[in-house]
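Annual report, structural modelling task.

Input specification for the fe (ii) ion complex:
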Amino acid sequence: MSEGNVCVGTQGQPWITTSGSADAFLLNMLSWGRPVETSLVGAFDKSGRGSRRDIPLPFHRDGDYSKDVSAKHNIDVVGLHCLKPGKAVTLIKYRDKVHSIRLQKGQGIIFDNKAVTHAREGDVGDRVLLRVWMEIIKD
Ligand SMILES: [Fe+2]
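The model returned the following structure:
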């Protein structure tokens, strides 16, 4: 998938914010294609995957650090849904413009993983997000 194939926002930007139940979020995500991985993002571990630790994350695309997954599947669309809010801020960078979003409970972001990069700043603390990776089915 090249940039711009998943322009989901009303302004043509390749991301949207959502609000509602985790159910509604999951059904929205499923509509994008094939699920690749679903996980919880929070401060659970002292070492290992950054999505499970209380550390800032520099701008990246999901799959950059998960080669075991990205070798087998395209992570085309990423969805983050906030189960428990916290101080951490999610940053989305698109064409050198950075948007910062502090997710509240029930809020989410869905973005084109190829068109934008994303980062995290601030303490994760008690914040827990539900994260879904989707692959767009081409045929
Ligand atoms: Fe990420």
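Residues 15-135 form a domain with the Double-stranded beta-helix fold (CATH 3.60.130.10).
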